[in-house]
Amino acid sequence: MALDVVFERFVNQSPLPVMARLLMQRALSPEWLDGLFEQHRQRQYTRELLFSTEVDLMALVALGLRPSLHAAAQASDGLKVSMQALYDKVNHTEPRVVRRLVQGCAERLTPVLGQLKLQQPSWAAGYRVRVLDGNHLAASQKRLKSLRGFRGAALPGQSLVVYAPEWDLVVDMVPAEDAHAQERALMGPVLERVQPGELWLADRNFSTTRILFAVADKQTTFLIREHGRSPSPAEVGPMKKVGRVETGVVFEQAVEIEDEQGRRMRLRRIELRLEKPTEDGDTCTRLLTNVPTERMGAKEVAGLYRRRWSIEGMFGRLESVLKSEVSTLGYPRAALLAFGLAVMAYNVLAVMLAAVETEHRLKPAEVSSYYVADEVKATYGGMMMAIPEKL
Fold it and tell me: 316 and 380 share a domain?
């Protein structure tokens, strides 16, 4: 009875940490985590330390509830292995397991969002928009001993991130231990998950003939900024002025690209001649798309591409609101696990924000992710000491 009273007090006076715990239990139940590990592991195996315990401790760090993995482990009563065994497990967590963790978390939370947001404002009518971008983890102060004198090898890894903006969820992440690999070289696993009915937005790092044909072959549409050297489309029509938008004047032209097998694909080139240069000094932005003209006009295409920057805002919130980059983790696999769990925590936060918006009929801009996360951080630890772990 006393515990019920304490629980009700948290629900009434500080509901956000309660909501966070319930969502964490749904997204990362121990049974699901351990089953996921067994299904997708390759070389790792379970002895005394369960994967669910590892994730639970690392999640505390990613959420900013503990300053380091060492601090999280010291505060845990359930850890039955040495600190060295814990770090060995974390440092060798396989990237494919981290990827499946992010995918599975999004899949488990999407139905909750579906109940909260029954009518999603679409970025592009008739399409499910996916925004693709790369993220490089910052150099770590905790470098491996063999790399401390080699500045070029201090980066602990990178990831390709797929963001569903209408849901404000990260739905896929491809972790890579080689921080210096080209982003386009990591596209294979992403292309395998491209689905019909999607519209993919990406910057010029992904502007290659192979990628464009691979997306089109899945009966999917794309809007990608044209690279200066690739795919070098051939002009098959004149450049026509369409009209003016907020940032400049829009032109459209029919172009064509050809792959190694001799296949040809007709595309639309949307050119935005900017009134003010970008930070990089660019005065003209060229976009390539296979979206039909009847589905989206040139000015709409230009406006949609500008919204691609929403993923940069998401990365900014990951860094400022959550602890997406743990500087004390020098091993690439450990750093990538921390980033993956921060992405998972971001998805949980997105559902919490949606719940607040729905309950109080607020617009997204009226709810601060920073203050929601701060409330969770301030109260979560005390709540977990006051009431049982399973709510």
Answer: no
